[in-house]
Amino acid sequence: MFDRASTLIFNEGDSIQNLEALQLLIKAVFRTPQLDEIHLRLIDLLTTRTDWQGPPEKSVAALRQLISQLASEFPAEQHLWLCLLRDLANHEIETLENRRAYVPGGRFNPNAVYYPNPLNPQDPRSTFSELPYARVFKFVDKTTPIGSAGSCFAMEIAHRLQAEGYNYVITEPDPHSEKGYMNSCARWGTIFNVPSMRQLVEKAFRVRKLPKILWSHYPDGKLELRDPFREEITFSSLDEYEASYDSHIAAAREALLKCKVFVMTLGVNEVWRLKSDGTAFSRNPWRLASSLVERHIQTVEDNVNDLQKMLDLWRSHNPDLKLILSVSPVPLLATFRGDDSHVIASTCHSKSTLRLAAEEFVKRNRDVYYFPSYETVLYCTENPWEPDQRHVARHTVGKVMQLFDTMFVSDSDEMVVPASDMPVQIPEKRGTNFLLHPDWLDNFSGSMLALDAYFSAFQPEDDVCLMTWLPPETGVSTDEAMQRLADAIAELGYDADRIPDVLLIESVGQDQRAQLLQEVNAVIETGAASEANTLREARNQGVRVISPQPDILKVIGRHSLEKNAIVREVPQIKTLALNNHARIGQRDILLDELISGYEHFLKTKQTPHAAYVAMREWFCLSDGKFNDLMQQLYSEVYPPQALEVASGVLGEMRGGNLAKVTDALRQDGFYVFPDRLAPDICDRLMDFALQTEALLHSPPSDVPERHIYDPEHPLVAKYSFSDTSLISQPEVQRLVADPSILAVAQDYLGCSPILDLLTMWWSTAVWPEANSEAAQLFHFDMDRINFLKFFVYLTDVTEETGPHSYVRASHHRKPLALLRDGRFSDQEILRHYSSEDIIDIVAPRGTMFFADTRGFHKGVHLRAGHRLIFQMEFASSLFGAPYSPNLVDGEFGPELLQAVRRYPRTYELLKGERL
Asked: Given Cys at both, which of 126, 660, 793, 797 links 847, Cβ 3.0 to 4.6 Å?
C-alpha cells in the first residue's frame, strides 16, 4: 500500500504538503499492517475535513481532532478509536524522545551523550577527565551494610570500601588478610565466573552441596591444601578443612543476609567444570586429573540465566537486596582456547560477553545497577596499569571509587564517621579561606613570601582567613609555631592588630588533610619539600594551588564573593523559572549543575560541560531573567572602568553619543554605525584573508583541514581564521585596543568587560541552500551569561552575498514556543514576529555594527559571491563555552600594550592569565 509516486525530501523543519508525505506520516503513527484500510479512510477524511498541511505537529493535531470526531460519530467502534488515539500519543512521545536523542541538556550527566574530544574547539574534553556514568542512584552511605564478591578487582573494591570507613560486612575474618582489610565478607575466596557465584549463594542457603575436593601443593616443601571452589583459600591439613567447612557456610549465609547492598564483579567466561555433575571451579582445576573435567565457554544467555537463578534464590531470603554489577577490567592470565584464539582476543571475547550479560540482567531486574568500573579503567584513566600491565594501579582504583561515590553514595549528614577520622574543627567558616602549609622544618622564606602577599592583598575587614596547619609529624609545638608566625609578621613590618585573620590549626593528621582541603579556596605554595603531599592532594580534589602573589589572592577573594552571592540568590533564581516551560521538571537538577559548575569555574577558570549546558537551559527556563540577575552581580563586583580616552573608529563615545548607541542597543538589540572603517584598513585585512591559511569547516575527505581561500574555487561554505593569527596583525590589534569600541561594550554590559572572542571568516555560496552549521538558520547565542558582539563587513554585503539578519528586539523576552536551544525556520520566526521586525543589514564594505546575539539572528544564505566579516566579542564573565588565551605581551604593538596595562580585566586573555 501507499506506493510513493515521487521522491520525498524531508527534514526536521519541513512541512507536510502533499499526499505522499501525509501517507508516510500516517504509516509512522499507525504501524500495524492490518490497518491499511483504516489508513486510507483516515487520509481521505483528513484531506477533506481538516486543514492538515503544515509542520508534522499540525498534521498530527488535525489527525487527533479527526479521530475524536469519528469516535462521536461512530460510537460502536469506540475500541478502534481509543486504540488509534493510544498509537497517536505513543507517536508523539517517541517523536519528543527522538528529538532529544543527542541533546546533552536535561540529563543526569549531560557529558554522557557525546564522546570526549580534546581537540574539539567548542568543547575540549578528554576521556581521562571523564566519569562514564549516565545516572546516579544515591542509596549508599557509611551506615549501609555492604559486601562484595567476584574477581581480583572485587578485592580492590573491598579493600577501598573498608579503608574509607564504609560498613563493610565481615562474618568470617581471614587470618591472612593484608593490612587488616578482608578480601571478602566471608572466606569464599576470589570468584572469577558467574556459575561459581551462583554456586556460592546456593551453597550458603543449602540448596546445593559442592563436592569436597582439594588439591595438594608443596610450596617450600610444606603441604598446602587448596579448595578449587574457593580460590586462594588454603589449609594446612585435612582436619583444618573439615573443621571449618560448616562454619564457613554459616558465615557465608550470614553475610548474604546482612548485606543490603552487594557489589559483584564479573571476571571471565571460560569455565572449567566437573564432568560428573557440572560443578564449576572458581578459576581452573589446577592439578586435578584432566580426565575429570571439561571446558565450557559461557554465552551471554548462560550468564544471564545463572545470575537470575542466583538473584531469585538470594532475594527469597533477603528481599531488600540491591545488587551493583560490574565487569572486571583485569585481562585473562591465560586462555584454554590457545589453538584458535590469542589470550588478548579471548580477553576481549570474555569481557564483551560479560558486559552484554550484565546489561541484559540489569534490564530484567529491579534494584540491580550496572557500575561502569570496566569502562573507567579502559577508557577514562591515563596509564591505569601496574608494571605487569594486568593489575590496576592505586590511582586507578581511586578513580573507580570516585565513580562509585558519584553514582551511589548519598551526601547524607547522617553518615557515621569513625572517631579517628573526625573532621577538622574550624571555629568559623570564612568567605574565602587560603591554606598555608608552612615549611616548619625548612627555610621559612617561602612562608614569609606567602604571608607578605596575604597581608598586602587584604584588609582586616575583608571576609578572608589564612589557615595554617601543624602536622604532628613535624614535632613542632603549638607555642613554637605561634611564636614563629608572630616573628614573621613583625619581621615583615606589619602590625599584628591590623592584619586580616590568620588561624593556626593544630594536629592535622594525614587522614584529616582531605577534610581540611574541602574548607579552602586555594593553597599557597611555599616551595617546601614537606608540602608535596598537600599540594598533590589539593590538585586531586580540584583545589587551586597558587604562587604567593597579592594579585592572585585578590582575584580569588573576589571570585569567592561571586560564589557566595550566587548561592545566596538560589531561592530568587528558582522563582525565575517559567512554570509552563517544557523543562520545568529539570529545574533543580539544572540549577545544581549550574551552581556546582560555577564554583568549579571560580577555582579553575574552566566551565564543566554540564554547567555550560545548564546555563543555556536556564536562559530558556527563565526567559533570560537569570542572566539579568547575574549581570547585576557583575556590575557590583566588576564596575565599569574609568576610560582615559573614548574616541576611535566609532567616533567620540561619551555622553550623548554613547547614550544614543547603547539606548538603541537596549531597545532593538543591534546598532549600525554611520561611520565606516577606513578603506586602507579593510584592504590590509582583505590581503591577510587572501594570503593566510584558514580552517575549513566540514571539508571533503580529500581536502586538507587548512587551506588558503581561492575566490575562484571555493571548497567549503566557511573558512575561519584563528585568533592567534589575527592578533598578530597590526590592524586587528588597533581594533582590539580601540577605546570607542570598549566604551560601548562596557556601557551596554554595565561592567568591566572581558574580550573573550576574536574571529574572522569567509562565507561562500558553495551550499545550494541554507545550512545550520554555517549559522544560516535563525538562532540565538548563549556562549556566555551576558555578552555583546562587534562586527565589521570587509566586503560589500548585498542580498545575494548573505547579510546579517536580526530580529529586532528579540534579545528581550521571547515567546514560550521559541524558548528552546536550537535552530528555527523562517516560518517559525514569522509566526511570532512581523516581517518588518526582521532586519537584513545590507551595507557596503567597512560597515560596523554591534549586536546582542541573544536575540534571534542568522547569516542569510549566500546565493552568489562571498562575504568576509570580522568579529570581536565582549563578555561580563568567561563562564560558559571553552576558550584559550591568545599571545604574550611581547608581540603586541604600543596601542594594545597600553590597553592591556590600563585595563587588565578586559584583556586578561591576551596576557595569558588564568585567574
From this structure: 793
262's enclosing H/E stretch is strand 261-266
Query: Which residues are within 8 A (CB) of 256 and not within 5 positions of it... i.e. 6 or more apart?
Result: 147, 201, 204, 205, 262, 314, 317, 318
- Tell how strand 368-370 and strand 322-327 pair up: parallel
Q: Are strands 787-793 and 804-807 parallel, antiparallel or unpaired?
A: unpaired
Task: Match 520545568 to its residue by C-alpha cell.
Answer: 584
Q: Is residue 106 part of a domain?
A: no
Answer yes or no: do 521 and 570 share one domain.
no
Most confident region among 375-389, 462-476, 512-526 by mean pLDDT: 375-389
The DSSP symbol for 877 reads -
Residues 64 and 80 in one domain: yes
C-beta of residue 578 within 8 angstroms of C-beta of residue 584 = yes
Range of the domain at 259: 146-345
The answer to the question of residue 40 being in a domain is: yes
For residue 406, tell me if it sits in a domain: no
Three-state SS for 432? strand
pLDDT band at 412 (very low <50, low <70, confident <90, very high): very low
Higher-confidence residue of 20 and 452: namely: 452
Taking residues 638-664, report their average pLDDT: 92
Residues 568, 552 share a domain: no
From 257, 199, 264, select the one nearest 230 (Cα to Cα): 199
The verdict on 153 and 172 lying in the same domain is yes
Axis-axis angle for helices 478-492, 445-457 (nearest 10): 60
* Pair 190, 85 in one domain: no
**Is 3 a residue whose pLDDT tops 50?**
no
Place of cell 503513527: 29
Structurally, how many domains does the chain consist of? 5
Residue 127 has a pLDDT of 87
Tell me if 118 is assigned to some domain.
no
Beta strands at 787-793 and 866-875: parallel, antiparallel or unpaired: antiparallel
C-alpha cell at 616: 543555556
pTM: 0.49
326-369 confidence digits (pLDDT tens): 999 999 989 999 999 999 999 999 999 999 999 999 999 999 99
Measured distance CA(220)–CA(76) in Å, rounded: 89
Question: Residue 496 burial (CB < 10 Å; 0-12/13-18/19+)?
Answer: exposed
Query: Closest Cα partner for 188 from 134, 235, 144, 150?
Result: 150
Strands lying side by side in the sheet with 866-875: 670-676, 847-851, 787-793, 866-875, 754-764, 718-721, 693-696, 706-708
Among the listed residues 830, 817, 740, the one whose alpha carbon sits nearest the alpha carbon of residue 778: 830
Residues 270 and 197 in one domain: yes
Among 558, 580, 612, residue at a domain's last position = 558
The Cα 509–Cα 556 span in angstroms is 27
Residues 6+ apart with CB under 8 A from 121: 882
In a shared domain, residues 589 and 734: no
Residue 611, Cα to own-chain centre: how many angstroms? 7
* Mean pLDDT, residues 221-244 taken together: 85
Clarify whether residues 567 and 554 are in a common domain. Answer: no
